[in-house]
Amino acid sequence: MTRDASPLEETVEEAPKLGRKRDHTRDPDILDAALEVLAETGYDGMTMEMVAARAKAGKATLYRRWPSKGELVIDAVACMKRGDFDRDHLPDTGTLRGDLVAMIKPHAIEDGARKMRIMAGLMSMISRNPELAEVARAAIVEPRASANRILLQRAIDRGEISEHSDIDSLAMLSQSMAIYRVLVLQKPVNRDFFIQLIDGVVLPAVGLGRPLATVDGGAGATDT
Amino acid sequence: MTRDASPLEETVEEAPKLGRKRDHTRDPDILDAALEVLAETGYDGMTMEMVAARAKAGKATLYRRWPSKGELVIDAVACMKRGDFDRDHLPDTGTLRGDLVAMIKPHAIEDGARKMRIMAGLMSMISRNPELAEVARAAIVEPRASANRILLQRAIDRGEISEHSDIDSLAMLSQSMAIYRVLVLQKPVNRDFFIQLIDGVVLPAVGLGRPLATVDGGAGATDT
DNA sequence: AAGATCCGGAACTACTCAGTTTCGTATAGA
DNA sequence: TCTATACGAAACTGAGTAGTTCCGGATCTT
Questions:
Q1: Using CA atoms, how far apart are residues A217 and A93, in angstroms rounded to an integer?
Q2: Which positions make up the DNA-binding region (chains A, B) (predicted)?
């Protein structure tokens, strides 16, 4: 887990007297490689050799930095949190539907699909490893759910939807349906799926019927 | 996969000339044991020794009947289809809410939770084994989804909800939220959760507001 | 250039587990 | 009772992998 050495040795660690600096510059490559392999083969299928090969590193380098496969995986999953939604740059189109539709960007879909594949590979481990469960929740699930929560709360503040809406359930809804669709049904999660989900479930659930016969997002959404 | 022998040997198989009949009476125990271990440790964590020990059988007996671990698992998952909802004995209370609430029985919740644990253990395998994916879908997800579809269709036929409701999405909704809650959020899926889901998401989504302030199911449901 | 440190590669150990083989026993039919 | 068969137990084989060790070379600092 990229843990620092104990305070006792730390003075030694932080004073590289001579030679090359302790840069650990290969860490990002290794973590990325671990995520790739994880998405492709799952936790049990992933071997340290695969990760090393993918990162063009030596197995020894991995073990110099992480004490075990489990710790490497936890670190890799945790570092996924970077590069997610900025809470300050969420869409703000003036309508809930516009905001939700604006969240559907090719990059977001692709990123979400990758995270779900990783989640699938971790599933059986997650049920038995609380630390991994927490890290995965914080890195994969929470960012998107909290983004949705913000959009819904804004809609309530605008008076667009009832203040009694079950925000927590609704924030999880799109993610849970997407996970279900990808992992269980093995069907693609694309723009059409999300639009149908928004218009067929989410908006009806908050009391906003379909805006304009579902054919086009008439709600002036600046989606791209 | 409990495949019969090829037609050529079948005559031999079905004519046990002497000695004990080919009863394979241990099969159900072994399949049950496999499901238990699967739920507890996942596909990769499950070993043939564990299954044999749990079923008080010998490893050799397993291999006499199934050619490999993969085939045993597929058979075990497939045989879960038995003992699910009878399409003829679904609740029929006269209202959609009554029907949905009547589906929440302790046994159904427990059974569902077990299936989800099994699903979690199969997740990473499912993405890479189409046959297993299909078997799991047919045995675990389809029965419940189709039960919900029937209830929703009845509500449409009664004129209780709009015929434009997105039945397919709604039928999957409770299951996808339950999977999400159990596997991702690691929170309990109990009666309260389902009630809140029905009143906070499903019914609003089909245009039926909360019936009586959510405090009590005033819809005359004969649930138990 | 010299010295210290990190790296990639490869060989190695120890262990787990899928699948096989063997053998003594229990059981059902003749 | 005799015999064929299925069974449980245990030993065994072979492959794969987590984790370790060692070494030559690359790179940075002085």
A1: 12
A2: 47-66
* Cβ neighbours, 10 Å, residue A45: 15
Same domain, yes or no: B48 and B92: no
A221 falls within a domain: no
Rounded CA gap, B138 and A85, in Å?
36
Q: pLDDT tens digits, residue range A117-165?
A: 999 999 999 999 999 999 999 999 999 999 999 999 999 999 999 999 9
Any idea what the CATH number is for the domain that residue A185 is in?
1.10.357.10
Contacts of A145 (CB under 8 A, 6+ apart): A171, A172, A175
Residue contact B121–A121, C-beta within 8 A:
no
Q: What is the DSSP letter of B202?
A: I
Residues B91, B192 within the same domain: yes
C-beta atoms surrounding A100 within 10 Å = 27
Other CB atoms within 10 Å distance of the CB of residue B32: 16
Range of the domain at A175: 84-203
Cβ–Cβ under 8 Å, residues B186 and B113:
no
Contacts of A191 (CB under 8 A, 6+ apart): A104, A109
Does A103 lie in the same domain as A68?
no
Percent of chain A surpassing pLDDT 70: 83
Q: For residue A35, give the nearest of A82, A67, A3 by alpha carbon.
A: A82
A17 is near strand D: CB distance < 7 Å: no
Mean pLDDT of all residues in A163-168: 94
Nucleotide closest to B19 measured between CA and C1': D4
pLDDT score at B22: 55
Residue A153 in tokens:
């709360």
Q: Is residue A218 in some structural domain?
A: no
Token representation of residue A43: 């936790």
* Rounded Cα–Cα distance for residues A171 and A147 (Å): 8
Q: What's A28's domain CATH number?
A: 1.10.10.60
The per-residue pLDDT for range A47-72, each reduced to its tens digit, is 999 999 999 999 999 999 999 999 99
**Amino acid (one-letter) located at B57:** A
Instruction: Using a CB–CB cutoff of 8 Å, tell me whether A43 touches chain B.
Output: yes
Residues 135-174 of A with CB under 7 A from strand D: none
Q: In terms of domains, do A106 and A119 share one?
A: yes
